[in-house]
Fold:
Amino acid sequence: MLNTLPEALSIIFTLEGLLVLVLGTFLGIVLGALPGIGSTVAVAMVMPFTLTMGQAPAILLLLAIYAGSVYGGSVSAILINTPGTPQSAATCFDGFPMAQRGEAGLALGWATVASIIGGVVSAIVLILAAPTLAAFALNFGPIETFALVLLGLTCIVSVSEGSMLKGLIAGTIGLFLAVVGGDPITGEARFTFGQFQLLAGFDLLAVVIGVFAITEVLMRVSGPLDSSNRLTDFKGVVLPRFRDWSGRVKVLVKSVLIGNGIGILPGTGAATAAFISYAEAKRSSPNRAAFGRGEPDGIIASEAANNAVTGGALVPTMALGIPGDAVTAVMLATLTLHGITPGVRLMSDNPVLMGAIFTGFLLINLILLPLGMAVGKIAAPILRLPEAFMLVGIVLLSTVGVYFVRGNPFDLLVMVTAGIFGFILRRQGYPMAPLVIGMVLGPTLEISLRQGLILTNGSFGAFYAGHPIALVLGMITIVMLALPAVNRMRARQGADS
Amino acid sequence: MFERFKTTSCLAAIVCAGMASSAAAQEFPQQPVNLVVPFNAGGGTDLLIRGFAPAFAEALGGNVYVSNMAGGSGTVAAGSLAEEDPDGYRLGYWSMTVATVQPQIKDVPYDKDSWTPICSIAASPMILFTNAGSPFKTIDDAVEAVKDEPGRYLFGSSGPGAMTHLAAVAAFEGLGVLKDVRHLPFQGSGPALQAMAAGTIQFYADTEILMNSGDFRPLVVFAPERLESYPEVPTAAEAGIEPPLAELDLWGGLFAPHDLDPKIRDQLSEACGKAVASDEFQAFAERTATVLNYRDAESFDVFFRKQYDDNKVLIEAAGL
Structure:
């Protein structure tokens, strides 16, 4: 790969190549920041324009949009408590409280640096070890995936602020919402009540935008509205000082590893990675007590992980020609349209092109820094608008974004209903994070469990036997669930003696 | 004064009405024509229609744009279009499964009589394949192994009722061993191909372009004749699969809601034929390994209705 580097660089360092990188990343950040337009939609929107471009610029444009949009989702999550993409939902938990405290610029600074480090590390891993890691990922069958997702579900426990019971109820509601629609194994309709629109299930994005953006707007409208009030005080991105990082490096490293690892595995995605990483940070960070009230570690955990997924998802895509998610599927389709057969021979047959793609991907992650600062400069005056305007703007953008994804008016009904429902739940003190986690993990949990049962001929007993990876993950799950109880007991004993 | 106003407005109305009717008769596309893709942007179907749209626009002499309406294996878009007025400005691209299988296995608001078929565009042969390293060199080896150890081998699919599922069912049912293999559905072709590479499943059926993405060995192809690219692989009929199972065909075509004005229908159908024959679209199809198969409105209507009934056998065999 290294011996093709000069040739690869000569592809990137042309006017077209650089223009594609800069404009693509910038556009990606803006699209990602718009509520509703997630990475998949952003990449699919741009794809038709790549048909007239050369091979390398076409793929680089899509990669730039991809990486940019994952970062862009954090901008709206922090500034207006509306995740631009589902994978930035976990960034809201600490990002928005920081913004409310008047530290919006610094919150975005943490998100920017964490995103870049996550993206750069994942790019380096992709360049150095893609074939090896892709081969390892093949060990992850349905049973291993089930064990991993089950472990992910335990993070409901750690993100349930206030009442544990209410958190678990919200999580169960989320899991139930994921059950509505066609059965993934038999195809039968479930809980559709004769409404054929429900056959497709609830759209994740419509529900996420509903319970975050619409619920937030309702919460604010129900309080006293002051026309001179601002939603957040934001003047531009403020990068964290070097010494502020002390005590946070461990969270960063762990989050990057979690994001990258989950990205490489089939069947999961950036939203799962961000939630698991956030939950792990909340469990183990030295600053865990402040989580949920504007703790930078929460932002770092979520943003480092979701950007580390990007390079991870490209590992099976580039090494095996098998798409890791919907975004990489669009990329493979684009390769095909440019006359390149994606597959196991992709890297060996096209070394120069792959070299250009990998180097370009690294560069994209580096130019996120200046471009992120630039987007901050542009967003600042918009955020100085009175709160009432902002709230109307959020509703408008959410509506357009949600409609755009599937072109289905029914999704708007889902968004508004989820918003009202979320408002009622939040008024009663139910946290929204577990609901979204349940809905994100639910479909994977179900299909992997049922696939596993087909493989073991319906035997739950045979599930973990003969699957060492699943067994280890299962044991970690039990420890994660038991730890809080054990700690509490120890604390009580300590107090007694 | 009032009289004169009445006369002029009468005259104006007559003139306007005359202009409107002549305009409708002469130049049909007075506004852009919308092609609805029932799946997400970026997928195989979406690509095909985005490649087709410019050629179709040129042949039609008007503007054409593509929109996506995903969900419910394509039934959300089809159900929504079925209820619209047949004005010819909104056409859906339905595959064989959306048009003939889904309405017979799900409670959707459309059926055989909901459409004015316009034209068929593509028909990609489905291939049943296994891993290149597998001990099964031919379809006979596979059938023998399955018979020796019933219940041991699995075939995957991209989802229940999907073409990948039906093709594998057609093959194993046609060879009389469907009860001896197990079905493992995935969500999309990506995870299923990954499971093939990992050896979790032994058989999978998809189009040639997907099969070429990995190290796989074709066993049987659903086509009337052997493929040029794989002359040694037998067709379904040669492998001993009988019709109608052997005639499985992943076709797709344009549909308008039923009762479309026959004049507009023929105009659209003709433009579709020109577009399919255009150099531009032919080159596109070659790049994407798509097999084109144009049928005009009348023959597509007959074909579609026969398929709708023939596929009942397949649906029953798949247990859907």
